[in-house]
Amino acid sequence: MWHACGLTRPWNDPRADLDQARAGATSTVLVARRAGVVVGTVMAGVDGHRGWVYYLGVQPGEQGRGLGSALLRAAEAWLGAHGARKVQLMVRTGNPVSGFYAGHGYAVQDCLVLGRWLEPAAG
Ligand SMILES: CC(C)(COP(=O)(O)OP(=O)(O)OC[C@H]1O[C@@H](n2cnc3c(N)ncnc32)[C@H](O)[C@@H]1OP(=O)(O)O)[C@@H](O)C(=O)NCCC(=O)NCCS
């Protein structure tokens, strides 16, 4: 489903991301099911300061029916219950989804997101 939603990238292993988020006490993956089949997901985690949302996606044939909104609200509730007071997320450049988030009260933040890969731990 994540592939169909365009959420995967060659440098990320979605299975490893899923397992890591589900294994942690401060992260989770919530799903929406129709007739037992997963048709939507959202990953949420608190980092000790903020809550973050990843992998929000709804199966293309199921979009536009409120599932994405319900998943986002569920993630916010989960994060709030786990101590987060602010929720943040990253939207890839070129993804036209900003309007969806704006409709849920999300605004562009006055900061630049930087990142770097860590080398695997030795031993
Ligand atoms: C973003 C996404 C999860 C929304 O899920 P959804 O189930 O279609 O959303 P909803 O049905 O709850 O839509 C809620 C509102 O957002 C609007 N909306 C949905 N997608 C939108 C978009 N791409 N741009 C602007 N508005 C959008 C809907 O029109 C609806 O507005 P309304 O309440 O005024 O009618 C879904 O489009 C998706 O899976 N996209 C591909 C994956 C992706 O890019 N995820 C975000 C990664 S940061």
Describe the model.
- By secondary structure, the protein is an alpha+beta fold.
- It has a single domain (about 15-100), classed as Aminopeptidase (3-Layer(aba) Sandwich), CATH 3.40.630.
- About 25% of the residues lie in helices and about 25% in strands.
- The chain starts with 13 loop residues before the first helix and ends in a 21-residue tail after the last helix.
- The model has no long low-confidence stretch (mean pLDDT about 95).
- The site of coenzyme A has 20 residues, from β3, α2 and α3.
- Keywords: Acyltransferase, Transferase.
- This is GNAT family acetyltransferase.
- GO terms for molecular function: acyltransferase activity, transferring groups other than amino-acyl groups.
- It is an enzyme of class 2 (transferase).
Features of the shown structure:
single chain, 123 residues, alpha+beta, Aminopeptidase, 4-stranded mixed β-sheet, 3 helices, 24% helix, globular, binds coenzyme A, Bact_Acetyltransf, acyltransferase activity, transferring groups other than amino-acyl groups, GNAT family acetyltransferase, Acyl_CoA_acyltransferase
